Amino acid sequence: MRLGVNIDHIAVLREARKINDPDPLEALAILRRAGADQVTIHLREDRRHINDYDARRIVEHSPLPVNIECSLDPGILEIISELAPHRATLVPERREEVTTEGGLDVIGQFDRICEAVERLKEREIDVSLFIDPDFEIVAASADTGADMVELHTGEYANIYAMLYSNLPHTPHSIPELELSRRELKERLSQAVGALENSALYGAKAGLLIAAGHGLNYHNVAPITRIPNIEELNIGQSIIARSVWVGLERAVAQMVEAIHG
Ligand code: PXP
Hints:
- Helix 2 runs parallel beside helix 11, helix 6 runs parallel beside helix 8 and helix 10 packs across helix 11.
- The protein has a single domain, classed as Aldolase class I (TIM Barrel, Alpha-Beta Barrel).
- By secondary structure, it is of the alpha/beta class.
- About 45% of the residues lie in helices and about 15% in strands.
- The chain has an eight-stranded parallel barrel, surrounded by eight helices.
- The protein contains eleven helices and eight strands.
- The longest helix has 24 residues.
- Helix 5 links the parallel strand 4 and strand 5.
- The radius of gyration is 18 Å and the shape is globular.
- Bound molecules: pyridoxine-5'-phosphate.
- Pyridoxine-5'-phosphate binds next to strand 8 and helix 10.
């Protein structure tokens, strides 16, 4: 299982002061030394963290394949086509969200997504779709011509946190705090089951399967045991841990958590 490290939050820290420090480019060599397989960045429409200059330098200088998450906005797609990273992951985007909240509406936006996939693939960019783990959405994704899907693990992560974390819950979590432990455990196994079934179905349809969102050092192990998932993209928990142990150790510890 490959690890893509999302380094947006290094740019979040920089943007807190609107200066040049820390520079996300400096993370690349560290990621590679620590055993990461890919660097992931999100070029958001509001440029709240990674900006065009970062994206360009990261694509030009990265020793690891670069995966750029982006919306279907024509201006953004134009930039990604021109940058031609190794991969583009199409994600839904809303300005008011704190982070990507759900998967792409592949069924409702099918034609628009097909056009984006075609346009990116013309530039020999591999295309992934960030989707909820749902059978029909996986089927529609395969029909778009995309190379892979990234299954949204946010629901799994939220239920896991409700069951096993003592800390107050994150704001984008599911609101039903009233569930009993038995109900939560059931919901957790349903969430894992949805990921398993979607991964299996997607792999049979010829898609490569990644997963990500909300994964951390505690909740990642059950995801690593799901057959057909070949890659995880993880940001928040790694960058958060790097504050305490440094980026190289934080990445190495996640590699260890994934490979056991
Ligand atoms: N994958 C995708 C498509 C995302 O949008 C994000 C968040 O930017 C991640 C993975 C990483 O999520 P997290 O920061 O919760 O690990």
